[in-house]
Amino acid sequence: MVHSTEVLHIYRRILRAITYLPDSSARIYVHNEVVQRFRRHRPWTSPLHIISNRVRKARAFAGCFERAAHGSSEDLQRVLMHTYGRAGARRRELVKELLRPDESILPKDDTALQQLIENPKAQEPVDGKPSPKVTAFIASQRRNHPKESDRPKIRQLEKPQKTIWDREPVAKLQHSRWLKWWAQVLEKLLPPVPKVEWDRLRDLSLGKIPLDEFPMRRSRPVENTEQQGDMVYRYLQLKLRSEAAQLEGATFDTTRGLQVQTKTREESLGENHEVLLPRARRRLYAHIWRLTPTMSQDETTKVWTVVWGTGKSLIAAGTLTTPSASDMELFEGMENLPEPHQQIVQPHRASGAQVEQYAVKRQQWEEAQLAKNV
What we know:
Mean pLDDT: 78
Organism: Hyaloscypha variabilis (strain UAMH 11265 / GT02V1 / F)
Order of helices and strands: HHHHHHHHHHEEHHEEHH
Structural class: mainly alpha
InterPro entries: Cup1-like_N (IPR046896)
Domain LYR motif-containing protein Cup1-like N-terminal: 10-94
Protein name: LYR motif-containing protein Cup1-like N-terminal domain-containing protein
Radius of gyration: 31 Å
Distance between the termini: 85 Å
Largest sheet: 2 strands, antiparallel
Number of helices: 14
Shape: flat
Low-confidence stretches: 341-348
């Protein structure tokens, strides 16, 4: 039997751990999500085994939030993935927002509106005909599928022309195939986020805006005792606090006395936990940014445009850099460098003349290297 006091302790533990997350958006989103879920399941009307599973999951989430607040990269990535809609409930909400009908599908007159009210499922995508907005996004994700994504790539719908008996497939079979494909698409979608949120991810990953610092740990409250009510004891406390304020890094604790902090903030934060450096955190934001698109529609042409995050690396963004002087030393002694579009023939796949030409170039290169060393 799960006692209500245990649930209350877990609830307070989660809320306390959320306040130490190093991301302001994550603190707001996770706090609202936790409060909403606990209030939703507050009435004890579910069976006992379901309540036990919920308590077990809540305890696991509390540990995840605490480790993320202490700098664990895996747990922090999990929290940020849920915050920015790459997994969890936020992703499902963004998928619903993506599937919401746009202006091209809305009823044009009163007759169409009455038909929509009488048959609300008429606007749902049927037999491979989703809205233009969803079609444009699916095509964009298929072209720009992130390599880091845990979700597989969206495949095209295969429509068989003939059955194994060389007959036309019936409509029911085609519809069932489309329903199965549509369910897989909904599971693989990486829905777009608002432009403001996408810009924040870009700026955090590229270093245009500073990262949120890890919040300082709050000290535990001290219980009031009869000794603290003594005027002499209060005077001594006030005297020690005033002297400690004049020393750099000195604090006065009523239970431990005068303390002098000799470690930096990062050292004291990571004394018993992993310290996540700012560079590693920016790589983490860049990883999430590559999985996050944003979508907008041109007001004139009504064409949907999808923009995906590229990351900080120029090679990952599709831009090749020019070779440096140290790279060009590898090709020193060669008369003509192979063009990028030309295929380099391997010796074991080449003809006799090509192998001989390759051997001559190899010998010339070795002689040039030997002369250079001499």
